[in-house]
């Protein structure tokens, strides 16, 4: 049993309980596809930022027979964000879906259908994050294992000016690490990261800094 995650779900805000009935109704077979798309978008928003098209999802849910207001949509989104933040806070990763399901089953009135969908979307979002991160993170790790870091340069651009980012017009961060090898030679390591990859790298460095402060 993942105790911290259970404690997180035990501490659900008042609005979460109100949203449960709405979430269960939205997970119904007639609206299942809309519900899964909504959960996925909320989880991706928490991971990458951007915007959640609440009005569009509200209209689609209403069209599928689920009566929801604008206030209801805020409750639904906030409840899903709370679940996602619990998983992130306790770093359960893509393999942590069973822990997430267990915590939701124990401490919420979410239906099995809703819980299964939330867990499925959690896995998909986390797997996408992990898949996007290795190239950029590995390049940074390689730079640091060569020798002593003597300088860092960076710039922000869009992918039309990038040789590595595939999505046209998507923002990217270009990093240049200057590393002094043992023999004194200075080598340059250049990497380009998408916004999501840069966020993931930033989270990793923040975690490392926090750990170092405890030593």
UniProtKB/TrEMBL annotation:
PROSITE patterns: COMM. It holds the Pfam family COMM_domain. Residues 148-215 form the COMM domain. This is COMM domain-containing protein. It comes from Florenciella parvula.
């Amino acid at each position: 049993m993942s105790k911290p995650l259970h404690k997180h779900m035990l501490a659900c805000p008042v609005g979460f309980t109100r949203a449960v009935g709405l979430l269960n109704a939205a997970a119904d077979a007639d609206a299942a596809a809309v519900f899964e798309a909504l959960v996925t978008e909320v989880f991706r928003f928490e991971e990458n930022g951007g915007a959640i098209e609440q009005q569009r999802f509200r209209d689609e849910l209403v069209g599928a027979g689920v009566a929801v207001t604008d206030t209801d949509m805020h409750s639904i989104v906030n409840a899903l964000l709370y679940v996602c933040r619990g998983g992130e806070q306790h770093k359960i990763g893509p393999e942590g879906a069973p822990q997430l399901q267990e915590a939701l089953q124990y401490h919420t009135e979410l239906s099995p259908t809703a819980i299964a969908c939330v867990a499925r979307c959690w896995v998909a979002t986390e797997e996408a994050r992990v898949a996007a991160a290795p190239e950029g993170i590995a390049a940074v790790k390689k730079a640091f294992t060569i020798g002593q870091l003597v300088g860092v340069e960076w710039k922000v651009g869009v992918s039309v000016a990038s040789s590595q980012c595939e999505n046209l017009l998507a923002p990217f961060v270009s990093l240049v690490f200057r590393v002094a090898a043992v023999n004194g030679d200075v080598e340059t390591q250049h990497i380009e990261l998408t916004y999501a990859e840069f966020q993931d790298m930033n989270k990793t460095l923040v975690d490392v800094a926090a750990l170092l402060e405890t030593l």
